[in-house]
């Protein structure tokens, strides 16, 4: 059989995959806060699914680094620690620096339009002042740069950490609260790529990731100190 009649209808998404997609969206958007507790019973009731299906969905998210399983105590939304941020910053900067270099080498009119469209989406999101839209647009611009590298394996490796990078970006928007600053920083990122400046694009991408990484690490360490001091105040008798 040839032609369209030979094509098979797409398979329906499994229940555990659908539940994982719903949870993933809530986590990366910030609707479920980092470190919050997840219980199979409540999720099963909410989704109208069995606990086994919910457990399979949570296991999917464990492999993506978005959920952590606690032995004998349940599940937590992954929380980005200072050490996590340092590791992710180093990995992300390496991947995106290579992507920017390759993108600058092969930039053409179509690639330029794709970058400019992604940047315009970021600018509009910044003007609207919605953090979730800004995070979406931020991630979209970085994914566009990775795609323009034309390197399939680079894209596959980036996909493996994409959701963790999204959490990282969301943390970055908390640190850099001034939206125009976010736009300005991304202009500095894309400008050398658009100009075909290979060395400059690599340097700009690495600097972009490392600067936001350093800010997030400092932010998380300060939060850690505040939490420790608060606990000490509670435990220390007056």
TrEMBL record:
Q: Which CDD domains match?
A: WHTH_GntR
SMART domains per record:
FCD, HTH_GNTR
Keyword Nucleotidyltransferase applies: no
Could you list this entry's UniProt keywords, alphabetically sorted: DNA-binding, Transcription, Transcription regulation
- A Pfam family that the UniProt record links to this protein: GntR
Its domain of life?
Bacteria
Molecular function terms from GO: DNA binding; DNA-binding transcription factor activity
Domain HTH gntR-type, chain residue ranges per copy: 13-80
Q: What is this protein called?
A: HTH gntR-type domain-containing protein
